[in-house]
Write a structure and sequence with these properties.
Number of helices: 10
Radius of gyration: 20 Å
Strand order of the largest sheet: 14-13-12-11-7-10-9-8-15
CATH class of the largest domain: Alpha Beta
Structural class: alpha/beta
Shape: globular
Order of helices and strands: EHEHEHEHEHEHEHHEEEEEEEHHE
Distance between the termini: 40 Å
């Protein structure tokens, strides 16, 4: 059976939209990009050239949404703009896929989830690790008790991040630095796989002469009494990443390097992912939800927990103390 054709609009035509989302839309084979909102004309022109078909251009996302009826809106814009843009799209009756983080505040993230539920629309956050086969299977194992009760999480992610420039180093646009940006992926993976609720944090931060955080160290207490240590180093030489879960019956350790999964060990043995667990990507999952009427849909509650924890981390740094994590 042929796929149902979907009409989508884009907000933001920067490198992430062009190099990550657009190739996935092209691979789907049944998506029409109707319009794009992008204030930098050069970014729009580059995206239109890559797509190879006519796309209406707008400087303002509201004008675009007024003039085009679409099934869905994809958003890849500065973090501080996510709430307003996603809210406007949902209010227009569109499904929404947006880049991480969901928003820069727990309050705004909660409001978007409630609006999506009220509008009966799907809201998806593009955390790619959630759809890697090892991560998907790890979540299944943890939920079924293979590790027993999780007692602790230890993790770090590194990157040579400061040289990227652009809006990410402007706190008004980014809402934070390396922790809010690349670090959000690690936090999301830790919370989604473990299923744990963070309840209290303390944190240290330095900016390495930038306007936003470059290096952050976080201690977390979870609702079940488990403890976590999460570190984020944006001033490192390259990407490297470890994520480990330690329970009463076993342990699970991920190693990623140069953005590739290098190993996953279950009790110090390579994790055997069953053939039935198929890796995918957030765009494919999102489009599948729309076509199937929501089969397998999960509201992005874990993205709200990411926003709540992130907000508490910055508050802990500012107050130099322990801060309670706001409930979703």
């Amino acid at each position: 059976m042929a796929k149902k054709k979907l009409r989508v609009a884009l907000i933001g035509c920067g490198g992430n939209m062009r190099h990550a989302h657009v190739p996935r839309l092209r691979a789907d084979g049944a998506v029409e990009i109707v319009a794009a909102a992008e204030p930098a004309k050069g970014n729009f022109d580059a995206l239109k050239k890559d797509w190879g078909k006519t796309i209406a251009h707008y400087d303002n996302h509201r004008a675009m949404l007024r003039e085009h009826a679409v099934d869905a809106v994809l958003i890849s814009s500065p973090h501080s703009m996510h709430y307003e843009q996603a809210r406007d799209a949902l209010q227009r009756g569109c499904h929404v896929l947006l880049e991480k983080p969901l928003t820069t505040s727990a309050r705004d993230s909660r409001a978007l989830l409630r609006l999506a539920a009220k509008q009966k629309r799907f809201l998806q956050v593009a955390y790619q690790r959630s759809y890697l086969a090892p991560h998907m299977y790890a979540r299944e194992l943890v939920s079924k008790g293979r590790l027993g009760e999780i007692q602790g999480i230890a993790a770090y992610v590194t990157q040579h991040w400061g040289g990227i420039g652009s809006w990410r180093l402007n706190p008004k646009l980014s809402g934070g630095g390396f922790f809010m940006d690349t670090g959000s992926h690690l936090v999301a993976a830790a919370l989604r796989i473990s299923g744990l609720d963070p309840v209290e944090v303390s944190a240290y931060l330095n900016k390495q002469d930038q306007r936003v955080d470059m290096n952050v160290a976080v201690s977390v207490r979870f609702g079940n009494g488990a403890l976590g240590n999460l570190s984020f180093f944006g001033s490192a030489s390259r990407h490297d990443e470890r994520l480990s879960f330690h329970g009463t019956k076993g342990c699970l350790v991920f190693h990623l390097h140069a953005w590739q999964v290098k190993s996953v060990l279950l009790d110090d043995e390579p994790l055997a992912v069953p053939a039935r667990v198929k890796g995918t990507d957030p765009d494919a999952v999102f489009l599948g939800w729309i076509r199937s009427g929501g089969k397998g849909y999960e509201p992005a509650e874990y993205a709200l927990r990411v926003a709540s924890l992130s907000e508490a981390v910055y508050q802990a740094v500012a107050t130099k103390g322990r801060v309670r994590v706001r409930k979703g």
